[in-house]
Task: inverse folding
């Protein structure tokens, strides 16, 4: 019998399979790298912010011609941050895995032939087999549950990372505003100290002051100059950190609008209750736990025989043709997937412990931040109460110095006391602003 019909059938099956194959297209790495180094288009980013879809961040309209608010900077960071772009690409892998889990298994086709070299028979022998893994049908539903849980976890982890990145941008914005104010105050203190040193040196040249007073003025000027330079370094570092977070060029200068302080009810238990309902990382852990529950169910199912159905059509050298099914399966005599079940159970217990640990850590973080904010607010109120009479005294000293009633050095010392209080207040306001953002991030949703 001719082999044309079996060969034609095999060829048709192969052609049908190849017709639905994907096509490879290269994606050069250099193109993505150069685009990232050029930095984002902020106008396009502002348009994306207006269409932002996030469970905790609301879209807003952004005017790039005006100084940006901390909230606007946070939303821009969600769109432009390079790490978030990589995380979004990684999350799409989980989507692809869900798609893969829903696909039916392809059957396997085997074809073999025996060519006669010698003997009385004249018919070529062949064997054609079509095999299908039935176990994939049995576990398809639970496999999709596993991958869907993993996908949901990846999406929630991404949303949590976006929320954290937006908060980090807001924190850096608050730091830049406070450090700009501190740099101005330190610069004024340094200028005043340098002017006082110059006058003291002139007086020393005339023999009007002692050497110890000159040394005191010199140390004060050096200390004020060091503080001003440190404030400048801190401000420059904060600006670079913000540019890195936004993915823009290092030399970019972002104009930031100051934000009014927020009033928050500092009740730790109430905030923790909100955190349990709002935190996306907790939702991600719950999704991961659900995925592991499905994985444990699949491990239990895998202890039963894995079935494979095979249909064979054959012809021997005498021309006899046969067709018949066969079933292959693993006999669960000793293994019974005991190792896989044990690993799945241990992993589930690990995830339960991680979830509990995250809850404990969240409660502790909120309590620490509330305590720090409470103390910083109290210290700020005390310092503000001290600064007000000092400011009046400095104004009176300036007026008295102008009349010649007190020395200029006395008036400058009074004014420097006010500046010192203002610097301390600026540091406390910066701490309060940063801790407020940190508390909002710990709670997991806007106040």
Result:
């Amino acid at each position: 019998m001719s082999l044309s019909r079996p060969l034609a059938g095999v060829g048709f099956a192969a052609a049908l399979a190849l017709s639905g194959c994907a096509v490879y297209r290269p994606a050069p790495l250099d193109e993505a790298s150069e685009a990232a180094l050029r930095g984002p288009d902020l106008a396009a980013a502002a348009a994306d912010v207006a269409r932002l879809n996030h469970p905790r961040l609301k879209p807003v309209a952004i005017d790039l011609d005006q100084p940006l608010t901390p909230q606007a900077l946070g939303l821009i960071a969600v769109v432009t941050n390079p790490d978030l772009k990589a995380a979004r690409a990684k999350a799409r892998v989980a989507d692809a895995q869900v798609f893969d889990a829903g696909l039916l298994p392809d059957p396997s086709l085997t074809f073999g032939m025996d060519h006669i070299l010698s003997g009385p028979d004249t018919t070529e022998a062949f064997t054609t087999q079509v095999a299908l893994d039935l176990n994939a049908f049995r576990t398809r539903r639970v496999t999709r549950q596993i991958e869907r849980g993993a996908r949901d976890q990846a999406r929630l982890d991404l949303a949590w990372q976006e929320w954290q990145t937006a908060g980090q941008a807001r924190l850096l914005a608050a730091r830049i505003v406070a450090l700009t104010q501190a740099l101005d105050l330190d610069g004024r203190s340094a200028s005043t100290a340098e002017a006082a040193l110059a006058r003291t040196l002139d007086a020393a040249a005339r023999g009007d002051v002692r050497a110890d007073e000159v040394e005191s003025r010199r140390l004060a000027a050096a200390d004020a100059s060091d503080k001003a330079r440190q404030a400048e370094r801190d401000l420059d570092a904060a600006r670079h950190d913000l540019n890195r977070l936004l993915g823009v060029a290092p030399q970019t200068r972002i104009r930031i609008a100051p934000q009014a302080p927020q009033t928050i009810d500092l009740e730790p238990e109430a905030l923790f209750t909100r955190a349990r309902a709002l935190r996306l990382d907790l939702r991600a852990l719950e999704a991961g736990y659900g995925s592991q529950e499905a994985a444990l169910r699949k491990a239990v199912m895998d202890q039963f025989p894995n079935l494979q159905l095979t249909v064979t059509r054959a012809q021997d050298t005498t021309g006899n043709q046969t067709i018949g099914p066969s079933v292959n399966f693993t006999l669960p005599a000793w293994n019974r997937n005991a190792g896989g079940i044990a690993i799945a159970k241990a992993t589930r217990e690990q995830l339960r412990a991680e979830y509990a640990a995250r809850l404990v850590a969240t409660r502790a973080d909120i309590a620490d931040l509330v305590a720090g904010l409470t103390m910083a607010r109290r210290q700020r109120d005390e310092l503000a109460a001290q600064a007000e009479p000092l400011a009046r005294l400095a104004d009176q000293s300036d007026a008295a110095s102008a009349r010649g009633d007190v020395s200029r050095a006395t008036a400058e010392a009074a004014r420097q006391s006010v500046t010192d209080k203002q610097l301390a207040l600026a540091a406390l306001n910066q701490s309060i602003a940063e801790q407020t953002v940190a508390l909002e991030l710990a709670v997991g949703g806007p106040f």
